[in-house]
Design brief:
heterodimer, A: mainly beta, 6-stranded mixed beta sheet, 4-stranded antiparallel beta sheet, 12 strands, globular, B: mainly beta, 7-stranded mixed beta sheet
């Protein structure tokens, strides 16, 4: 079974600064995908970014980028130019080739301060 | 375009009562999922349906049953609710049961069992 660990329960950052959220995982699968989801107070789960394990290039989506270290089984999320609207809980998630095998981390609560 | 719709959004039950959470998607997705989210934790998979007519257990299936009524609808039933089932429940769907496909989530249903 795979595991996903987010070691930072809470983080805060000043508006316009950069913050990095950590995620490590463990799996014996070779074909898998990694995700970061955002959950604002509205409770809606929103996809932030996705990484295919077979791709070496790190995924980017506007102000969001990942540092994917496959050998170290690390998948961190960098948020640049943080905005107040980035305040939310962020979940790292693992999904194997069969999406029934989905595992979420316990989340990191990020607060962006004005 | 409604996406994934869950009903009810809130429900309070007494121990031993039964209830069904309804989920419907209008995106012609083949795969549907039920997760639960407990305070301070990530999402844990209860059951999933890779395609119409099939259902499989996830990580925490005990105390629940599911029905894939048709391609659009996937319901979750609690036959005899227990306080340990107090949680927020999320339904999700995707085109095919693979991590290559992104999950679309409903808004969640908050269930309290007294």
């Amino acid at each position: 079974a795979q595991t996903v660990t987010q070691s930072q329960p809470e983080m805060s950052v000043q508006e316009a600064e950069t913050v990095t959220l950590s995620c490590t995982y463990d799996t014996s699968e070779s074909n898998y995908y990694l995700f970061w989801y955002k959950q604002p107070p509205s409770r809606q789960m929103i996809l932030v970014i996705r990484q295919e394990a077979y791709k070496q290039q790190n995924a980017t989506e506007n102000r969001f980028s990942v540092n994917f270290q496959k050998a170290a089984k690390s998948f961190s999320l960098k948020i640049s130019d943080s905005q107040l609207g980035d305040t939310a809980m962020y979940f790292c998630a693992f999904m194997g080739g069969n999406a029934g095998k989905s595992t979420f981390g316990d989340g990191t609560t990020l607060t962006v301060k004005p | 375009n409604a996406g994934v719709t869950q009903t009810p959004k809130f429900q309070v039950l007494k121990t031993g009562q039964s209830m069904t959470l309804q989920c419907a998607q209008d995106m012609n997705h083949n795969s549907m999922y039920w997760y639960r989210q407990d305070p301070g934790m990530g999402l844990r998979l209860i059951y999933y349906s890779a395609s119409e007519g099939t259902t499989d257990k996830g990580e925490v299936p005990n105390g629940y049953n599911v029905s894939r009524l048709n391609k659009r609808e996937f319901s979750l039933r609690l036959e005899s609710a227990a306080p340990s089932q107090t949680s927020v429940y999320f339904c999700a769907s995707c085109t095919e049961p693979s991590g290559a496909n992104v999950l679309t989530f409903g808004a969640g249903s908050r269930l309290t069992v007294l």
